[in-house]
Write a structure and sequence with these properties.
Length: 75
């Protein structure tokens, strides 16, 4: 699988999310952007599928994001 290179602006955008204590949203947003999906829709994931399921998906998103971009957000 070919890795996707995030721009400096995208990395800055994601790190701003992390600084605001919204690391999960940052990861999901980055995942969405790297796969060409609308990132904003994932902000409602937690409310839609519930906390436990959201946490499980968050971990999957993080794994896929690392595979796809080589990026590892620290939070």
């Amino acid at each position: 699988m070919e890795k996707i290179k995030l721009t400096e602006k995208e990395v800055e955008y994601l790190n701003d999310f992390v600084k605001m204590g919204r690391a999960a949203e940052a990861l999901i947003s980055a995942y969405s952007r790297s796969f060409g999906m609308q990132a904003w829709i994932f902000r409602f994931t937690k409310r839609i599928i519930g906390e436990k399921e959201y946490t499980r998906h968050h971990l999957r998103f993080h794994t896929k994001l690392k595979e796809r971009t080589g990026m590892n957000l620290k939070y």
